[in-house]
Amino acid sequence: NRAVTRKDYQVRALSMPSKYGSIAKVYCAPDGELDNNSPSSILSNPNSLQQFTDLITSLKEKDLSEAEIKAEVNTFLTGKQADSREKNNPFAINLYILGYNQNNNLISVGDNIALKENLKTYLGEYRLLTDGVNLLNGFIINVGVDFEIRVYGGYNKQEVLVKCMSEIKKYFNIDNWTFNMPINISELELLIAGVEGVQSVPKCSIVNKCKGNYASTSYNIEAATKNKMVYPSLDPSVFEVKYPNKDIQGRVV
Questions:
Q1: Interatomic CA distance for residues 90 and 3, integer angstroms
Q2: For 43-99, how does the pLDDT look when each residue is reduced to its tens digit (9 = 90+)?
Q3: Following DSSP, what letter does each residue of the chain receive, concatenated?
Q4: Calpha distance 3→87 (Å, rounded)
Q5: 150 has which bridge partners?
Q6: pTM for this structure?
Q7: Dihedrals phi, psi of 160, to nearest 5 degrees
Q8: Contact assessment for residue 221 and residue 208, using Cβ atoms and an 8 Å cutoff
Q9: Residue 198 burial by CB count (10 A; 0-12/13-18/19+): exposed, middle or buried?
Q10: Bridge partners, residue 136, by sequence
């Protein structure tokens, strides 16, 4: 049963002995499952590329807003298929991996040749003879939290604020986060509202942190948010609050 085999890879990789290297997060998927309909894969088809070029050329002649341009591009990509010449191995599994550094922050480890060799050695004891495993980097999306609270009379505002920030830090403990796990803003608001002394939560928003000391992944949080759920990208990724003391900002209003 191939489904069981894929699951077996994921579970065993997560519990891999420390002597084989430090891997914190693992996500596995059949080769090609995630990229068959990605924009890059679609545009590798010469016909689709020509159609897209014609679309861009026609947009130059129209006076459209940014939202209208995005709608046109989205309509074009919807239903398009990848280049039929792009071949994927039906017996291969893509294994997306991330590790921790000394500060317990997520780091890319897929380029670590020694770790890859150790992982290959470990998985070699369990994989079927015909199975292939592609080791790839997962994506890190660094985020911050910006929130506001109102506090009941009789409570020390700063003490209540500090307790709220402490609860948010616990919520975003990276050990509890996995690949493709969305951020539930409603759940976060309820968590903050549950702190003693909090009267209401007028604002709670998620912001992307990138470049500099953060991961280079730029992510449009607003576009990825629907019904107070921040969804991750199609590419295997993990949300991380890298610097809780700096990236969690709260105010009493």
A1: 13
A2: 666 777 777 788 788 877 777 787 777 777 777 776 665 554 445 566 677 888 888
A3: -HHHHHHHHHHHHHT--GGG----EEEEEETTTTTTTSHHHHTTSHHHHHHHHHHHHHHHTS---HHHHHHHHHHHHTT----TT----TTEEEEEEEEE-TTS-EEE-TT-HHHHHHHHHHHTTTS-TT-EEEEEE-EEEEEEEEEEEEE-TTS-HHHHHHHHHHHHHHHT-GGG--TTPPEEHHHHHHHHHTSTTEEEEEEEEEEE--STTS-S----HHHHEETTEEPPPSS-EEEE-S-HHHHEEEEE-
A4: 21
A5: 200
A6: 0.71
A7: -65, -40
A8: yes
A9: buried
A10: 96
- As a whole number of angstroms, the distance between CA 124 and CA 120 comes to 6
For residues 140 and 108, what is the distance between their CA atoms, to the nearest angstrom?
A: 8
Give dist(CA 243, CA 107) in Å, integer. Answer: 14
Amino acid letter, 109 = V
pLDDT 10s digits, 140-174: 999 999 999 999 999 999 999 999 999 999 999 99
Whether 174 and 101 have beta carbons less than 8 Å apart is answered as no
Listed residue (162, 140, 139, 136) closest to 149, CA to CA: 162
List, in sequence order, every residue forming a beta bridge with 252; answer none if it has no partner.
149
Taking the CA atoms of 55, 56, 59 and 64 in sequence, report the sign of the dihedral they define: positive
- The pair of structure tokens assigned to 248 is 């969690």
What is the phi/psi pair of residue 182, to 5°? Answer: -75, 165
